[in-house]
Amino acid sequence: MTARRRRVPTTLAALALGVPEGTIRQWARRGKITRYGTTRQALYDLDELARLATPSEAPATRHSVAS
After folding, report:
1. Are 49 and 19 in contact (CB under 8 A)?
2. What sign does the dihedral 14-35-51-58 (CA atoms) show?
3. Which alpha helices (H) appear in 1-67, and where do they start and end?
4. Which of 14, 32, 44, 64 could form a disulfide with 27 if both were Cys (CB 3.0 to 4.6 A apart)?
5. pLDDT tens across 3-57, in order?
6. What gap in Å lies between CA 36 and CA 17, rounded to an integer?
């Protein structure tokens, strides 16, 4: 028997990673994470989000500007 993937809506994905919901949507548009669900409701895989929780694997959200 295969394990069923657990998927959560944008709000919970953002909460799990400690980032704004807009960041989750942006990562999905850029292909950093996979968006599942329908056109009305986005869902994200908890296993994929857990991998992103590792700092070395999380996509960059902002660029630093040297002074």
Report:
1. no
2. negative
3. 10-17, 21-29, 46-52
4. 32
5. 678 999 999 999 999 999 999 999 999 999 999 999 999 999 999 998 888 766 5
6. 17
Determine the pLDDT at residue 13: 95
Length of the chain (residues) = 67
Q: How many CB atoms lie within 10 A of CB 40?
A: 5
- Please list the residues that pair with 27 across neighbouring strands: none
Question: Span 60-64, mean pLDDT?
Answer: 54
Among candidate residues 28, 53, 23, 55, the one with its CA nearest the CA of residue 41: 28
- Residues 7, 47 contacting (CB under 8 angstroms): no
Look at residue 67 in the predicted model and tell me its pLDDT: 47
